[in-house]
Amino acid sequence: MKPRVFFMDYLRAIAIIGVLVIHAAAPYASLYQKAEFSMWEAGIIYNSLARWCVPVFFMISGALLLGRKEESLKDFFTKRANKILIPFLFWSIFYYLWRVLAIYKSAPSFIEFRDLFLNATIYYHLWYFYALIALYLLIPMFNVFCRYATQQLVGYTVMLYLLFFGVFRYYDFLIPNKLVDYFPFTEFTGMILLGFYLGRYNQSKKLRIIIYTAGIIGAAATILRTNAFAFEQEQFSSYAFGYATPNVLAMAIALFVFFKYFITKRQEQNEQFSPGRLLKQISWTSFGIYLVHPLFLDLIRRYFQNGDEVLVHPAIGIPIQVVIGLFLSLITVTILSKIPYVKRII
Where does the UniProt annotation locate this protein (predicted)? Predict the structure, then answer.
């Protein structure tokens, strides 16, 4: 296994765990001034410290798919369509039925499904498909750019992305501006280029120290800014939770670079070094875990939180939900992956 792919296994595994943390912690954000402050704060801390997971997933895609040998559009899209479209359609229908029958206990409606589907609002985690499909449509063009562009040119493009989304957009509450509206990237297209850049080119030890320091500051800033906004507005604000905010990107970049160098160094020191079986399995089934985990979190959440009533303190309840949700999702996906035809949905 190539070192580059080797450290990707670790990133995928921790990133999917981060997704479960975010989704287990999210309901507690609405408890501001409705429950004990420590309960709300615990949810905010867990959520803040896991926000990097989504940028890391997009960065992994960029690192693995960009700068490669060119292939025909037909071959590229055929491979991705087989992996994405069937799960996308199946789980959109599944979660729509789960939403109307199990949660709202109403009758299904094709018109309602159509409207929710077209607006990416069937279920809270399915937005990822829409972003991923849009990125795949652009990957062939970005691949040519990354294959032939110099490091300086790719770095310049990444810096523009960080400037417009990380500075101009995030700090528009200080100096109102609409500059990002005229930048031809979305918050996710920049992430795939960022992943390619960090994966392809080396970062000096001095630069890595700066990156790690920025990551720590980003983690603290996410927590502190979320608290500050809540106190100012007297209600929870997710402003600092944005995936393209400088604080979240700083965490994502720090983790990406850390695992790149830590795992590569371990491999160089020990040729027999490899991820453990559990970590490999979590990594290999991360896409399936992403698809099924909301179902299990929905089923177990009632034992931890009932509306505004918290049954188990989030400091303990969130990691327990993550462990249970991860275990059940991993078992389910592993079983489904062994069933002919059914395995195509995960």
Answer: Cell membrane
